[in-house]
């Protein structure tokens, strides 16, 4: 039986043949997904010499419903997520804690067959954040060591990408043209300060894209089922200090930061239904780091952070 399945997969994906990867939506179609993510962070800020560990996990379940079909296979997709739960592990000064990050999320996405979001309507009830809410706690954590200029947003973005929360709920962006095994296409998932390394703008500091490169791996077997496999890679290594110096219109040696190194590497494996290209299972892992140094301190970084994560999304 296993041999027959492998043969069927091989026939469905002959070497070199280009495949049109497009989602197929059906009005009234429902699905339930479960997401789990765990990120371990070790950080320290001077004068501490020891890294302080933190372990956070995110869990949520959401449903999708194709409410209406439009021309060219475009669909209105209702997305409902009752809550995101953040489980924060025990730290030096606090016990394990569970907090709701979001509640009663209700969105209507208009999605193309290439899985591109054409429009979104938000029907989520709006509530004011309370002190101690998960959103505020995460924000305050990310801002640790930021100094006079708020670099917490960049650190927070790096952590969010690393934890994969809201990252691949709807699956990957699909290529506009047919692809063969090994073909690559890109999608932009964020921005980070960087310095141009070549060309006419060499040395100029810009807000550079964080590109998400996806490779078509072809057909494979998932739990006895023929599926399409797409692999996504994230790799970013930049220094935000020159960007801040440029914003302040000062030379780097007179800027408040000597280096703000932001680094992340991630790998995501998508397993998609062979006919509809709906996500069936997604597995991901990442690791990254943050190093902040200032001119007036010669003992190394004043703030350091290392993180690793694993995440999964499964259709129930």
Topology:
Elements: H1 2-12, E1 30-45, E2 52-69, E3 75-88, E4 97-111, E5 117-122, H2 134-142, H3 152-163, E6 184-195, E7 205-222, E8 225-239, H4 241-248, E9 259-273, E10 279-293, E11 303-315
Antiparallel strand pairs: 1-2, 1-11, 2-3, 3-4, 4-5, 6-7, 7-8, 8-9, 9-10, 10-11
Descriptive keywords:
316 residues, mainly beta, Lipovitellin-phosvitin complex, beta-sheet shell regions, 4 helices, 11 strands, 13% helix
Strand order of the largest sheet: 5-4-3-2-1-11-10-9-8-7-6
- The sequence of SSEs as H and E is HEEEEEHHEEEHEEE
Gap from first CA to last CA:
25 Å
Summarize the biggest pleated sheet: 11 strands, antiparallel
Stretches where pLDDT is under 50 for at least 5 consecutive residues are 1-11, 133-148
How would you name the oligomeric state of the polypeptide chains in this document? single chain
Structural class: mainly beta
Can you put this structure into words, describing what you see?
- With 316 residues, this protein is mainly β.
- The chain has one domain (2-315): Roll (Lipovitellin-phosvitin complex, beta-sheet shell regions).
- The protein contains four helices and eleven strands.
- The chain has an eleven-stranded antiparallel sheet with strand order 5-4-3-2-1-11-10-9-8-7-6, with helices on both faces.
- A hairpin with a 2-residue loop joins β7 and β8.
- α2 (134-142) packs across α3.
Structure, briefly:
The chain has 316 residues and is mainly β. Helix content is 13%, strand content 50%.
């Amino acid at each position: 039986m296993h041999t027959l399945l492998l043969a069927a997969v091989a026939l469905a994906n002959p070497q070199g043949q280009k495949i049109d990867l497009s989602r197929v939506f059906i009005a009234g179609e429902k699905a339930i997904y479960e997401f789990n993510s765990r990120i371990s962070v070790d950080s320290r800020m001077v004068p501490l010499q020891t890294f302080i560990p933190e372990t956070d996990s995110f869990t949520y379940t959401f449903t999708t419903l194709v409410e209406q079909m439009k021309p060219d296979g475009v669909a209105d997709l209702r997305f409902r997520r009752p809550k995101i739960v953040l489980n924060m592990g025990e730290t030096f000064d606090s016990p394990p804690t569970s907090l709701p990050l979001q509640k009663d999320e209700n969105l209507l996405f208009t999605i193309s067959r290439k899985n591109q979001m054409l429009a979104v309507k938000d029907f989520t009830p709006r509530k004011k954040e309370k002190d101690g809410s998960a959103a505020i706690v995460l924000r305050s954590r990310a801002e640790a060591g930021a100094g006079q200029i708020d670099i917490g947003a960049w650190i927070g973005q790096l952590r969010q990408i690393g934890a994969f929360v809201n990252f691949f709920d709807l699956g990957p962006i699909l290529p506009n043209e047919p692809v063969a095994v090994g073909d690559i296409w890109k999608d932009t998932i964020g921005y980070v300060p960087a310095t141009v390394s070549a060309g006419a703008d060499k040395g100029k500091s810009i807000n550079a894209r964080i590109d998400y490169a996806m490779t078509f791996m072809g057909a494979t077997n998932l739990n006895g089922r023929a599926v399409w496999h797409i692999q996504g890679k994230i790799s970013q290594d930049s220094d935000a200090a020159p960007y801040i110096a440029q914003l302040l219109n000062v030379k780097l040696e007179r800027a408040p930061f000597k280096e703000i190194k932001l680094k992340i590497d991630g790998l995501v494996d998508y397993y998609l239904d062979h006919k509809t290209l709906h996500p069936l299972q997604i597995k991901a892992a990442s690791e990254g780091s943050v190093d902040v140094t200032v001119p007036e301190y010669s003992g190394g970084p004043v703030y350091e952070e290392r993180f690793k994560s694993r995440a999964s999304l499964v259709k129930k």
